[in-house]
């Protein structure tokens, strides 16, 4: 009898091992890529690195997909609409769907070891957990009574879904099409969709999914790391190549404009303030568009027309910001070194409207909207225009670019809200470019803490040190 029991235990152990065994053929990697040429090159480097690592293994290589090339629907960066495609195409032969960003470096053998700990027949949602310390507008004030209770993944660390979960969610998407109007913070919204008001799985934290720099000592135990903290692809763009347009109005001349002048204006070579009132002491320029409370479409289109006219110096880049935007122009100069101004570039923090129903993406205005001259010229030549002066300028621009077939390009370094509105762990591995809103903060102190530094290659290291000490 004892031998029988031992035999049964051995069979059970072997069976449980078989449930968890994962080889590379069972993993589908999805790089959350973008169609801009710089981002395509970044994604190709990441795929090449993954495949090179697998050459030393005896297993066949995994499948590595680029998110931006899977369909013609530009809004599929929101991932959820693609779940039926993933289920139908890979559900029979795969166990894991692993998402990573272009800067996420993966140690393939270590990731395999981690995935083998989880029963692939069950529903799993794996990642590095983030949480809100206070309810925040970017998450629609979700879990207001206890924001820290809900965890969502840091996409920079990679995140994974088991295919039993993918298959069930795919059926949910088909039976109940996505109806949310706005996509603001995708990582939070994906986690909410999977959670299903408590009926679905919560995020399981995996300590080996990390956002440490790959060169740091702390990264030794990690299966994922970050290969780059602050993009720099050569010499920073000269400040004379960036024309800065600040949108303001008379009632904020004495409240918000002085903050700009005390913080980041000094780093601009070419900057103009546009208002509903010409004030020579600032100075501001009245473009003939009255101030509107709801949106500033008329003003923004007037700015773009002025930008391509002979009224201002010809530059490669246009930056449009609100008067309560805090921004680091030296860091923007570094970032723009990665982009080709001869391409139609529309860059900033990407939001989405009606993406599950054939909607469009747009760059949210408060964090700063960056346009190449080529993009502005194509936009104005198309005849696309505001349906009213007080229409939301960022959303109308998104509709225009979508109609032209020109994608908007996302950078997580631009922020529509204040530092307080983002997870500390999320900001801890960033070198941010902008924040927005002066509400309930000291904007000058926020600028000095988060955005003030010199234009040097030491920015990432200096920032990481000071941020970690303060946090």
UniProtKB/TrEMBL annotation:
Single GO MF annotation: glycosyltransferase activity
CC terms in the record's Gene Ontology section: endomembrane system; membrane
Family annotation (InterPro entries): Fringe-like_glycosylTrfase
Domain Fringe-like glycosyltransferase: 92-173, 236-441
Sorted UniProt keywords: Glycosyltransferase, Membrane, Signal-anchor, Transferase, Transmembrane, Transmembrane helix
Keyword Ribonucleoprotein applies: no
Subcellular location: Endomembrane system; Membrane
Predominant place of localization: membrane
Pfam families documented for this protein: Fringe
Membrane-related topology note: Single-pass membrane protein; Single-pass type II membrane protein
Family of the protein in this entry: Belongs to the glycosyltransferase 31 family.
Protein name: Fringe-like glycosyltransferase domain-containing protein
Native source organism of the sequence: Esox lucius (Northern pike)
